[in-house]
Design goal:
Layout: H1 4-12, H2 16-20, E1 27-29, E2 32-35, E3 47-50, E4 55-58, E5 64-65, H3 67-75, H4 79-89, H5 96-99, H6 102-108, H7 112-133, H8 138-146, H9 151-156, E6 160-162, H10 168-174, H11 179-184, E7 188-190, E8 196-198, E9 203-209, E10 215-222, E11 232-234, E12 247-248, H12 250-258, E13 263-266, H13 269-277, E14 283-286, H14 293-302, E15 305-309, H15 314-327, E16 334-337, H16 346-353, H17 355-363, H18 368-377, H19 385-400, H20 405-419, H21 423-447, H22 457-463, H23 468-482, H24 484-491, H25 501-513, H26 522-527, H27 532-542, H28 552-585, H29 588-607
Length: about 600
């Protein structure tokens, strides 16, 4: 158990912006910083970070809290683990008794995901040991050394080898690991009789980590070619692994990318690893040649610059075209293309010519339009007038998608000059293509629900699920927390209590907080709230956009609604229910009496309605 004073010491020494910005690209907007929410997919940034208050809050999904809560939500950590992680990220020394893994170990037995990750980490240890320390692994180690990898790089990526002897199953049997867990891990195949056996055999093993650095899967490369087996074999999808959501090396590359290096999207694991060894640390790769929407979204959360560099052969160039299309609907990411010369893949180019020359290619990377125009040229015989005409038509379709009129004009000039065609003619054919694209865009936007700006929806998102009484409770509690005189005044009201249970519980927790702290700090109070629903409620209350100064009449109005109107609302609910029952049984006299009482209660409710 970490003492409260140690927790507050860690929290107070950390700027939440420094932690969150490692995962989300933040932009200043007014007093707060905004970015795309890491907890759900969205088109318009609604994820807010307040540097003054040291809290985060998403106005769409409602998640919010302090820096500890952010890491708990994002990395599925317990509270003590989050405290330790924050201290580690910011190099804050913690007493050894608070950094022991006891509570962490206990947590790992509580969730299937944690247990599966633990199994994968143990498999990493075995495969890496076989590679580095046994005769069985010698051929695989020699292969990696021939590919130019150093011991340090092999160690960093924990590369391994799965031998033909199938050592993994007996390894876990010796540890008495639960059989059902092994079946769910994806590390084993199963025969008709229900027995399991090692999935990966005679393969160099690449551990696949999620964005939090936890091993969730493997990709195994055949050491010796076998026409009956795929060159690469990936783990199947499991509780902890979905290949459509994982980007290889994102956990390691993220820090470099956040320092304004572009994300370099490479085709294969060896491309990423070789680039990293050569000093290019922002390389990532998808788990296949086609990027998914989720992967594009994850990239766009942390950077606005992406350089795509796939293999120089024809399949690699086609994969670049698909990647460009994947980013086409994300206007927040500027995409550039590196075409590796001489048909080399990036790994070969870096090994043969060095990182400096590769970074020169990155520096002079071409735009998607340049790449597509060059790519299309290879599909046509430009000695043929028919093919030239077809190429120009297709080129105009590509140019028409460019939103900038100046850029479109430059490319029209290029095509006109290259093929000796009048610019006026090309422009006349371009205009209807642009108009068609604009109409399609308008239809696409009309088909989607409107997304108002994040700043506008702050109060609406927070308040829309509250009734009139809860609305008054939220505003009153906001005033009480921020002004201790109001806190004392409300405390002095005889028989006062919040009607809603969550508001009352939050009030009681705040009461305990003020016995230890003289001043209100939302990030500090958040540390002492364990229930997610109450944390969210606190963020909603603290995010209310109220006038700087409160008035006595305002506070009295809120108290009046809570103490007088709430009972009337409850009575109305009961009377209406009784009226329905009277109608159902045909009791006309009871219906008349209840109707009169409902009208009187409605009049009383309206008389007490001041906000």
């Amino acid at each position: 158990m970490i003492p409260e004073e140690v927790i507050e010491q860690v929290r107070s020494q950390v700027n939440i912006v420094d932690v969150v910005s490692q995962y989300v690209q933040l932009t200043q907007s007014g007093k707060n910083l905004f970015g795309l929410c890491p907890f759900h997919e969205e088109r318009t940034p609604s994820f807010s970070v307040s540097e003054d208050k040291q809290i985060f809050h998403c106005f769409s999904c409602g998640r919010g809290g302090n820096v500890f809560k952010f890491l708990m939500e994002l990395e599925n950590l317990t509270f003590p683990e989050a405290v330790r992680k924050v201290a580690e990220l910011q190099n804050i020394p913690l007493d050894e008794k608070y950094t022991s893994g006891g509570s962490q170990q206990a947590q790992q037995t509580n969730s299937l995901a944690s247990q599966l990750i633990q199994v994968h980490e143990q498999a990493v240890t075995l495969y890496h040991h076989v590679l580095m320390n046994t005769k069985l692994g010698q051929p695989a180690l020699e292969y990696l050394k021939k590919r130019g990898l150093t011991d340090e790089t092999i160690e960093k990526y924990q590369l391994g080898f799965a031998p033909g002897q199938r050592l993994l199953k007996p390894f876990f049997e010796e540890k008495k690991t639960d059989f059902k867990l092994l079946r769910k891990s994806g590390l084993f195949s199963e025969n008709d009789s229900g027995d399991i056996y090692d999935r990966f055999v005679d393969r160099v093993m690449f551990p696949i980590r999620n964005e939090n650095g936890k091993t969730v899967a493997f990709s195994g490369r055949l050491l010796v070619k076998d026409p009956e087996s795929p060159k690469y074999l990936n783990s199947p999808e499991t509780e902890i692994f979905n290949k459509r959501k994982v980007l290889f090396n994102l956990d390691s590359a993220r820090l470099s990318i956040r320092k304004n290096d572009p994300a370099i999207l490479l085709e294969g694991f060896m491309d990423v690893i070789s680039a990293d060894q050569a000093g290019i640390h922002s390389g990532i790769a998808s788990m296949g040649t086609s990027l998914t929407d989720q992967q594009v979204y994850d990239i766009s959360r942390i950077t606005s610059q992406v350089v795509i560099s796939y293999d120089g052969d024809t399949p690699g160039q086609k994969a670049i075209k698909r990647a460009i299309d994947s980013f086409a609907n994300n206007s927040k990411v500027a995409v550039k293309i590196v075409t590796v010369p001489d048909g080399l893949d990036p790994d070969e180019f870096v090994r043969q010519r060095g990182a400096d020359q590769f970074m020169e290619l990155v520096k002079h990377a071409s735009s998607p339009i340049d790449f597509e125009l060059q790519f299309m040229k290879k599909q046509y015989n430009l000695e043929s007038e028919v093919d030239v005409s077809n190429y120009i038509s297709e080129a105009l379709s590509v140019i028409a998608k460019e939103p900038s009129p100046i850029t479109r004009d430059l490319y029209v000039n290029k095509v006109a000059t290259e093929f000796g065609v009048g610019k006026e003619l090309l422009t006349s054919r371009l205009v209807p293509l642009i108009q068609s694209n604009q109409r399609q865009s308008q239809v696409a936007v009309a088909d989607q629900p409107p997304v108002p700006p994040a700043v506008i929806r702050q109060s609406a998102q927070s308040e829309r699920h509250w009734n009139v009484v809860q609305f008054a409770e939220a505003r009153l509690l906001n005033r009480m927390l921020h002004n201790h005189d109001i806190w004392l005044m409300v405390q002095g009201i005889e028989n006062f209590a919040f009607v809603d249970e969550d508001f009352q519980m939050l009030y009681l927790l705040a009461e305990g907080y003020f016995t230890k702290f003289d001043e209100y700090n939302v990030a500090t109070l958040s540390s002492f709230i364990t229930e997610n629903s109450l944390q969210t409620l606190l963020m909603d209350i603290d995010s209310l956009d109220l006038a700087v100064e409160s008035t006595e009449s305002e506070i009295n109005d809120y108290v009046n609604v809570i103490m007088n109107r709430a009972p009337v609302v409850d009575q109305l609910k009961q009377k209406r229910q009784s009226l329905q029952e009277a109608v159902a049984i045909g009791d006309v006299q009871k219906q008349r009496q209840l109707t009169i009482e409902i009208v009187q209660l409605e009049q009383k409710k309206q008389a007490g309605k001041h906000i």
